[in-house]
From TrEMBL:
Keywords: Cell membrane, Glycoprotein, Ion channel, Ion transport, Membrane, Phosphoprotein, Potassium, Potassium channel, Potassium transport, Transmembrane, Transmembrane helix, Transport, Voltage-gated channel. The keyword Phosphoprotein applies. The chain crosses the membrane at residues 42-64. Its main location: membrane. The keyword Ion transport applies. This is Potassium voltage-gated channel subfamily E member 1. InterPro entries: K_chnl_KCNE, KCNE1. GO terms for biological process: potassium ion export across plasma membrane; regulation of heart rate by cardiac conduction; regulation of ventricular cardiac muscle cell membrane repolarization. GO terms for cellular component: apical plasma membrane; membrane raft; voltage-gated potassium channel complex. Pfam families: ISK_Channel. Ancillary protein that functions as a regulatory subunit of the voltage-gated potassium (Kv) channel complex composed of pore-forming and potassium-conducting alpha subunits and of regulatory beta subunits. KCNE1 beta subunit modulates the gating kinetics and enhances stability of the channel complex. Alters the gating of the delayed rectifier Kv channel containing KCNB1 alpha subunit. Associates with KCNQ1/KVLQT1 alpha subunit to form the slowly activating delayed rectifier cardiac potassium (IKs) channel responsible for ventricular muscle action potential repolarization. Belongs to the potassium channel KCNE family. One of its GO terms (molecular function) is voltage-gated potassium channel activity involved in ventricular cardiac muscle cell action potential repolarization.
Amino acid sequence: MLALSNNTALNSLLSKLLQDYLEQMNSSAPSQVSSASSNLEIIYVLLLVGLFGFFTVGVMLTNIRTRRLEDSRDPYNTYIATDIWHKKDREYFQAKLIENYKLCCVFENQLAVEQPSTQIPEAKSS
């Protein structure tokens, strides 16, 4: 008889839980629609954050890989790293500037110089 009593207690407990669950589902039906939309919003935000993170990690890994492939003995990097080339370029630029300055001369057009005694003729309007 003890097994029968245990079985009926379990059945009554399960039926009570089922009734409570069904009552809760019936009373909260409108709130579930908003809950479903909030779940979609959360998924959308997580998707955007995931895509942004994927893009950022991809750019970082590409940059790191590119820097590893650079060799310190590479002539291009040696040119950038040393300041000797910048000094040589500056000296060359200064020499060219002085050379151009020495070649520069000003010609004066005597006819274009203002002459206070001579009046410039004006066109008469008709």
